[in-house]
Amino acid sequence: MPSSSSKFFKLNFRPGFHRESTQYSEEGSWYDGDRVRFREGRPENIRGYQKHTSTAIIGTSRDLQTWINNNTEKLISTGTEQRLNIFYNGTNYDVTPIISTVSVEAGVLGNFNTSAGSSLVEVSLTNHNTSVGDWIYFTSASINGYEAVHDFATSAFGGPTFQVASVAGLNNFYFSLNSVAASTETNMGNATLKFLLKTEQTNNIQGLGYGAGVYNAGVSITNERAWSAPAQFSNIVFLANQWSLDNWGEDLLAVRRGSQLFHWDADASISPVRASIVGTGPSKINSIVVSPNDRHVIALGTNEYATSIFNPLLLRWSDQEDYTNWTPSISSTSGELQLIDGTKIVGGIRSRNTIHVWTDKALYGLQYTGPPFIFNLQQLGSNCGLLSPHAAVAVNGISYWMGYNNFYAFNGQVQRLDCTIRRYLYDSFNMTQADKVYAGANSEFNEVIWLYPSSGSNEPNNYVIYNYAENHWVYGSGFFTTFEDRVVFDNTITTGAINSLENNYYWDNEPVSVFTGDGSALPSYVESADFDITDGDDIMFMDKAIPDFTINHGSLKFSIKTKMYPAGTEIEKGPYVINVGTQKIDLRSRGRQAVVRVSTADSGTSWKYGSIRLALQADGKR
User: Fold this and answer.
1) Where in the chain is the domain with CATH 2.40.30.20?
2) Does the pLDDT of residue 503 top 60, yes or no?
3) Residue 550's pLDDT is what?
């Protein structure tokens, strides 16, 4: 029982995580946690996730789009370094565009070679322009070497799509079948072979070596290179694969950064066909946005009209209601505008009555005005650039985005958000892979989420959440690479691989009543900043806690950690198990300052923190 001198104090802390300073100086706050959100000021664990489909995604998703077609069927599309995918009627379809087609005919153009006992097929084709990891697609094939003439355009041998396994010079490459050849055959076969959009790199690569960095011509110093020494640092970055997806009615428009515009026709077939190249559009586009009411396709960073010159600060748009016509004329509304503040356009989104476009330094607003100028461009802010192509999202007409060292919102003017974990986040951020930051909205909980890679990770492995209704911040660990609000499905949709050894999947994120991760337990915890009495002048003695939690089943663990001084040795009492029937916790703990921690690793447990009461009293000066 508690000492007769003890009094109960409620352990109520400010919502959100607060760690812009030390754990002691953030007194009265929650300081740390994982897989926790706050609602009405109280922490609770975040719901779990489950596979949307058991079919894996080939590659790592960089953009995600959900929509409903004219038949009220729900669709998902995602782009990876290897594929453009459509998930439709329970099946994940590869709709990657075909870049070129070759008719291979032995003795005329190219040939195939097989080796008995090997699953590799050699393709001899002059200047094939193919790399390891690229994909080829057979629409017809007749090749000996497998007991009889076989058609690789069928699924019998793992086709009709195959990945290039190795390359031998400019004129030969190999792909692998799911069976081995019965005989050795040379210079034979006939096939129609289609080359799909080339596979790209998955990570940004910093340009180093002898041609990078600042030449010092003397002793090597920071960020410079010495005589006959390669650079160890530079501002040169070779960007990884990136996609931009949007809808044209029920159809899909897609751009892989630096490619042409692709169009997928929802009506072309009962089974989805491949996306096609819009050959009359710009030859190079970084990203796109479809203007919602006037129906123009807007290219962000593209080649100038009538030239092949790529301009990273150029906006171009198609004719109204025609994504194929990009030629300005008296009978067309096509046009272009030049941005000036920054070095490149990073991304753009639809917001309230405008399209927000960011460079690496500024924010612009693009509004449809009609002929003769079609669009009006206005700079809305400076020194507020966008960190990555997908680091912005609009919610209720307000745009939120992540910049290079701050978070921002635009609601009539640019506002820097007061982020209580900003320093902690940016200090643990992998800026080399910043291009992969992905923003999403979770309207169920009034949240904006950013997925980002922390130090030591090449893929997003953490998240930061801003609750715009209650104005607080949390962070945590995860593996999602994209995020889409529940506007089409009953829950948010995400993509990602649980770890580097697993495949990527579509995920149903936070389905109702699901508190496991793909069937496994999801640990969660929250920890307070330090608290004391009389500013630490007196030592506290704590001997009883009365828990106040809502728990569906399973149990929680409650700990108290004390110190005599901020840099002193921490003494933990607990963890004490709390379940549905726990009325009190008897304990004995002593220190000038203390923190409390609540956690669980039980599978399927849902918990909400109420207001714990802790019995404590002053216990001397030392």
Assistant:
1) 98-196
2) yes
3) 95
